[in-house]
Write a structure and sequence with these properties.
This is Metalloprotease PmbA. This protein is of the alpha+beta class. About 25% of the residues lie in helices and about 35% in strands. Strands 3-2-1-4-5-6 form a six-stranded antiparallel β-sheet.
């Protein structure tokens, strides 16, 4: 990818998209759509002061979907030369001829196509050489290792810079393009005392390198987090409030989104079936979607089907206002697309009364602060939730000591409605912008936990 000529590259991809659609029409497609992308990046890994890997990446992709009436065929290629694209379109046509007719298949409603292109300041190329990236990684790791003699090992530091160009077009006449960058610095450190070894990490990611935390600050924060976990204590199985750190709290919101998304709903594989207009969060807590957020990680003026996006509310005062739908799932449910083909855009979790992290600890009084989760223990059909966890036991509103080798369990429906505190400490490293979340009560399985407790 020629970063300096990115607009010219997008124009070229747009022309390729037009050629694909014309080819599909000439072969008998009643409708067609195509997505093209070019990604380029640099990824460097260092460990213990030595370079481990330096990787330059350059990927291309073309995905073509055609419809012969209600018969759908899809084919893809990583080669955008004319001969390869011609073959890919022919393969998609051939596949469509052998698929079952689906009455919900087809492009989005042409009246919903986006017409006004918008820019959200997502393009910030970083002229980062491999040598400069290595130097950043080494500084980050060394800054962490220098904090304390107990930090005696490292899983390494990584520095990456990536740029992406994309075009989506369909036979309604829609052609939309976008370009974005993503940069990151991360490090994971290990510390040891007479009670064993612990590991933790920190990272910074942003669309612009200017918005990254300093490499040394990332290393020092990773070191502080690692040292804080030394000498963990065991706790007995109990029920208590749980405070999810911001980087984990957004995962709970992500699970809520999965449960109200079209695919899970029309398959009847969600614990939030028929939940429209019902309470899914406490009163006073809302979730707003803003696809037009400046420098947002998931900002876009159109969704994956070309449908126009717009700021809107997903949850208002705890009540679910709408589902998360693309055109296909909307048709399956007898509803309309919400402009979310391809997923949600930037989500902001807000509360009428937010609190600082220290205020949430004080409100909790006695309970568990969770800073790490392990496993994928959510049953989306029932909402049953059980995850391995580590963090800190809290007494008198203050962190008392680290704990690990525990399991937290509950039901996500009850956990979400049981939120009693929302933090002002919003983690900006994601498209889900959420502070810490305090859950009123969950089961904590610690030392010698009976199996019945985990199943409760």
């Amino acid at each position: 990818m020629n970063i300096e000529n990115s607009q010219e590259e997008l124009a070229r991809l747009s022309q390729v998209a037009e050629d694909v659609l014309q080819r599909a029409r000439s072969l008998g497609a009643s409708q067609a759509e195509v997505g093209l992308n070019i990604d380029a990046g640099l990824n460097v890994n260092v460990r213990l002061g030595e370079v481990e890997t330096v990787e330059h990446t350059r990927d291309r992709g073309v995905a073509v979907t055609v419809y012969l009436g209600q018969h759908k065929g899809t084919a893809s290629t990583a080669d955008i030369r004319p001969d390869s694209i011609r073959t890919t379109v022919e393969q998609a046509i051939a596949i469509a001829r052998y698929t079952e007719a689906d009455p919900c298949a087809g492009l989005a409603d042409p009246a919903r196509m986006a017409v006004a292109a918008k820019d959200f300041d997502q393009w910030h190329p970083w002229a980062l050489s491999a040598d400069a990236a290595i130097a950043l990684g080494l500084r980050c790791e060394q800054a962490g290792r220098d904090v304390d003699a107990r930090i005696n090992n490292s899983d390494g530091a990584s520095v990456s810079s990536n740029a992406s160009l994309s075009v989506y077009a369909n036979s309604h006449g829609f052609v939309g393009s976008g370009r974005d960058t993503r940069h990151s610095i991360s490090v994971a450190l290990l510390a040891e005392d007479d009670q064993g070894m612990q590991r933790d990490y920190w990272y910074s990611t942003a669309l612009s390198a200017a918005d990254l935390e300093a490499a040394e600050a990332i290393g020092q924060r990773a070191a502080a987090r690692t040292l804080a976990r030394l000498s963990p204590q065991k706790i007995q199985t109990t029920t208590a409030p749980i405070l999810f750190a911001p980087e984990l709290a957004r995962g709970l919101i992500g699970s809520l989104i999965s449960a109200v998304s079209g695919g899970a709903l029309y398959r009847r594989a969600s614990f939030l079936l028929d939940s429209l207009g019902t309470q899914v969060l406490p009163a006073g807590v809302s979730i707003h979607e803003n696809p037009w957020l400046n420098k947002g990680f998931a900002s876009s003026w159109f969704d994956a089907e070309g449908v126009a996006t717009a700021p809107n509310t997903l949850v208002a005062d705890g009540v679910l206002q709408r589902y998360v739908l693309g055109s296909y799932s909307a048709r399956k449910l007898g509803l309309s697309s919400t402009g979310n083909a391809g997923g949600v855009h930037n989500l902001l979790v807000q509360a009428k009364d937010t609190q600082t992290f220290d205020q949430l600890l004080a409100q909790m009084g006695r309970g568990l602060l969770v800073t790490e989760l392990m496993g994928q223990g959510l049953n989306l059909v029932t909402g049953d939730y059980s995850r391995g966890a580590a963090g800190f036991w809290v007494e008198g509103g203050k962190i008392a000591y680290p704990v690990d080798e525990i399991t937290i369990a509950g039901n996500l429906r009850h956990m979400l409605t049981g939120i009693v505190g929302v933090g002002s400490d919003v983690d900006l490293r994601s498209h889900i912008l959420c502070g810490s979340l305090l859950i009123e009560q969950m089961t904590i399985a610690g030392a010698s936990a009976p199996a019945a407790v985990l199943e409760a």
